[in-house]
Amino acid sequence: MLRFILRRLLQLVPVLLAIATLNFFLLQIAPGDAADIIAGQSGHATPEFVAALRAEFGLDQPMWKQYLLYLGKLVTLDLGYSFQYQLPVTSLIADRLPATLLLMVPSLLIAVGLGVVLGVIASRRRGGWVDSVVSIGALVVYATPVFWLGLMLIVLFSIQLGWLPSGGIADVREGNTGLAHVLDVAHHLVLPVITMALFYVAIYTRLMRASMLEVYSLDFITTARAKGVPEGGIAWRHAARNALLPVVTLAGLQFGHLLGGSVLVETVFGWPGLGRLVFDSLLQRDLNLLLGILFVSSVVVVIANLLADLTYGVLDPRIVHK
Amino acid sequence: MSAILSVQGLSVHFPTRQGVVRAVEDVSFDIDAGETLALVGESGSGKSTVAAAIMRIIPSPPGIIAAGRIEFEGRDLVKLPENEMRRVRGSRIAMIFQDPMMALNPVHTIGAQIVEALTLHTNLTRRQALGRAVELLELVRVPAPATRVGQYPHNLSGGMRQRVMIAMALACDPRLLIADEPTTALDVTIQAQVLELIGELKAKLGMAVLLITHDLGVVGETADRVVVMYAGRKVEEGRVEEVFRAPLHPYTRGLMRVSDFEGGTGQAMPEIPGTVPSPFEMPSGCAFSARCEVAVEACGATRPVLVVRGPARSAACLLLDEGRR
Amino acid sequence: MKQFWRRYRKNRAAVGGLVVVALITMIAIAGPYFHPVDPFDMVGRPYSPPFGEFPLGTDVSGRDILAGIIRGAPVSLLIGVVASLVATIIGVALGSVAGYYGGFIDDALMRTTEFFLTIPSFILAVVIVAIFAPTVYTITAAIAAVSWPSVARLVRGEFIAQREREYVQASRALGMPDWEIILVQILPNALAPVIVVSTLMVATAILTESGLSFLGLGDPNHVSWGYMIGVARTALRVAWWMTAIPGLMIVVAVIAINLAGEGLNDALNPKLRER
């Protein structure tokens, strides 16, 4: 098992290299470079000043040297410098990453969990009214832009009903500590998680339903019926266990999609995570920060895929861990 | 000997958009305690549908049991409410299937699958059931049963998987075992072992066997009586020796010819010319008449009824009545 | 062709979807003539509610919301359709070659698509548009750039399935050049699922475009529904309809396209339906 993990982590390396190369490439083709930006911000952008800055940042070196420098920096986790915040990109990201994970992990778990359950329920009475309601509901939610969904939920639960806060991660005014703080954060977490989860529930429901329908036509289901297993047992013990497999794989692949969604949801709810950081950096065209986030989020996706593969290996006994 | 299963006038229909498929039409037969009855026919003859009807696992929608009774242990299975039928399935009547790789759940251990059959129908605790599962594996001669119990279907060979299926089916001591093409997916050598095993267990446990197959060789070796089906209907019935020695129905004769063929240079392999009629275009007369070598005009127009030629010996052919063979 | 329409017509939801799509297209094309108001013009008092002087009210700057909806339609639709088309063309080109030839080319394609599927596509689109300054062209290119890998994989799979079939072998035996086999022989057979995926991709592209516009990465010269939602955020407390209306349009459009697309799927693959 350990060797399996190590092997997969090693497969990470070429992917990371490719992502880094892409980042570097994007940095190069961006009009203007760091020197121009700083010079522009400082107010006296004379050619000599810009040239001096370039030399200082190594921007006048040949491309391949810059590339190697860039890779070298990456290995030491140096993702560059954010001119907007006047802070190293790495520390900014490290600061915001936990909030994003706090939002994403519960959302993913709820989305997959609820999606699987709804998918099984819908597939049991295919064509029945439950199936129709679930399928139509899934379609409508899937068609809704996730940021609009969040805004509408704010209108309903925050503005009209006043049950939940409309943004932020905690109530700064109260100055809560300990348990009160945890509860406060949880209170603020509800709407963003519902928004994210709702959106992705639709995808997993449809997928699980389709998977179940395929599994239902397999031979071992007939064997189970011939044994006298009641329909409920057939659905949950026999069919669902098998239908779950492609859903798990997809959950891993979808993680990138989820991260993209977090950009929008965090912006809507003012949630202080990576997604919000993307939004903020857009206003200032802070390229270093943007690319740093791209890099880190790709790494996160790769890790998520690895976790999904491991889960698949646990669920499917046909996968042998040598 | 009294019949433990009595199928009377069974008809199974599948309404489709292009018309009604009469997969099984007016089929009747009995199975006596301790005997092996073979249900023979080519694919599409309806034999597997009969088995599914007895177990009431016909995919419905769209299939329905349109008519008939199936008497078993004093009750009509056709009319039994579903929850009671579930108690019959797997415990009083058990079924094994053709392809053991696909027929076993790939994500459950074989021990768990056998235990499930036990916990569903008996009061055994899980530990007791597990012990019984090991015993059953021994009974079907799976080597190292205690280890096998924790393994998965893909860890076993085809022959062993079929034994596991048999063990699962016998777990609750059924009175009747339905075997749907149990050896078709297996190697010839394994086939013989599995058939032998079924025969042994049948004698040991005193159960009856309904053997569904298209392989007359298997029928000759293991069955006591045989029912021949064609296009959803029964066309001949009798003790195996009699039917093999002197088949009454032209279709049965054709089957015998094909399976008797020894083969030699220059000899053309015999075949029954033509194909089974499409279920949507069933002729009004005898369904076999188009391919029959001795058919007369009347055959195409009148549906033949079963002519009885002895106790549990009959065939459905117009020519039998007239004493013309 | 007639058979196709007959099968399609059977799915009433799909027909409904198609009708709605046609309606939206008509609004996009003919709307500006019937309601020639520039969505950027300040025509009235800000925060006017709908069903008043202005059919859908005005936004935070006093601009006509109805005009925004009408002008936003072609923007979203065009970007969606063009992006999907470009992604499809690239995907078909690369996927067919990789699937047909296999070997090194196939490996290279698989690695590349895996790579693209690892990077969060929305964030990549954001980065691309941010680098190149937002215009309808860069947005379309960005969406196409993140969408082509899934088409390529699909086409590759189809080509791998088809390349050992008899008609392909026969064509080879006849001495047909490879490019002709790919284009004329195999591609028409592989096209059905591609058409369906491309249609559904239009819907996803519209959602992505609205997300980009919402974040402020829309083309500043064109109003888009996503942009309208973004602008209306500040007024959420007092004038929630400004957010609701454009969002509703997106939902309707995406549902319609999805229904029409799934109808396509059923009509092109009749066997799968009869289960």
Structure characterization notes:
The complex is a heterotrimer of chains A (322), B (325) and C (275). Chain A has 322 residues and is an all-alpha fold. Chain A has helices at 2-29, 34-42, 47-57, 63-75, 89-124, 129-143, 146-160, 178-216, 219-227, 231-269, 274-284, 287-315, and strands at residues 81-82, 87-88. In chain A, α5 (89-124) packs antiparallel against α6 (129-143). The N and C termini of chain A lie close together (7 Å). In chain B, strands 6-7-8-3-9-10-12-11 form an eight-stranded mixed beta sheet, sandwiched between helices. Chain B has a four-stranded antiparallel beta sheet with strand order 2-1-4-5. In chain B, α7 (158-170) packs parallel to α8 (188-205). Chain C has 275 residues and is mainly alpha-helical. Chain C is built from eleven helices and no strands. Chain C has helices spanning 2-10, 12-34, 65-101, 103-118, 121-132, 136-162, 166-173, 178-217, 225-231, 241-268, 270-273. The two termini of chain C are 24 Å apart. Chains in contact: A-B, A-C.
Please sum up the structure shown:
Chain B is of the alpha/beta class and 325 residues long. Chain B contains 13 helices and twelve strands. In chain B, α4 (110-121) packs across α5 and α7 packs parallel to α8.
- Largest sheet of chain C at a glance? none
The number of helical runs of chain C is 11
- The overall average pLDDT of chain A, rounded, is 82
Can you tell me the residue ranges of chain A where pLDDT is under 50 for at least 5 consecutive residues?
none
Quaternary form = heterotrimer
Largest interface: A-C, 49 and 40 residues
Fraction of residues of chain A in helices? over 70%
Sheet with the most strands, sense and barrel status of chain A: 2 strands, antiparallel
By DSSP, the count of extended strands of chain A is 2
Give the overall shape of chain A, derived from the CA principal axes.
globular
Q: SSE string of chain C, helix = H, strand = E?
A: HHHHHHHHHHH
Q: Helix coverage percent of residues of chain C? A: over 70%
Report Rg of chain A. 24 Å
Number of strands of chain C: 0
Radius of gyration of chain C: 22 Å
| Global geometry of chain C | elongated
Strand content of chain C: under 5%
Secondary structure layout:
The complex is a heterotrimer of chains A (322), B (325) and C (275).
Chain A lengths: L1 H28 L4 H9 L4 H11 L5 H13 L5 E2 L4 E2 H36 L4 H15 L2 H15 L17 H39 L2 H9 L3 H39 L4 H11 L2 H29 L7
Antiparallel strand pairs in A: 1-2
Helix pairs in contact in A: 1-4, 1-12, 2-3, 5-6, 5-8, 5-10, 6-8, 7-8, 7-10, 8-10, 9-10, 10-11, 10-12, 11-12
Chain B lengths: L2 E14 L2 E14 L3 E5 L6 H9 L8 E9 L2 E2 L5 H7 L4 E4 L3 H4 L6 H12 L4 H14 L5 H4 L9 H13 L5 E5 L7 H18 L2 E6 L2 H7 L2 E6 L2 E7 H6 L4 H11 L36 H5 L5 E4 L2 E3 L2 H4 L4
Parallel strand pairs in B: 3-8, 3-9, 6-7, 7-8
Antiparallel strand pairs in B: 1-2, 1-4, 4-5, 9-10, 10-12, 11-12
Helix pairs in contact in B: 4-5, 4-7, 5-7, 7-8
Chain C lengths: L1 H9 L1 H23 L30 H37 L1 H16 L2 H12 L3 H27 L3 H8 L4 H40 L7 H7 L9 H28 L1 H4 L2
Helix pairs in contact in C: 1-10, 2-3, 2-10, 3-4, 3-6, 3-8, 4-6, 5-6, 6-8, 7-8, 8-9, 8-10, 9-10
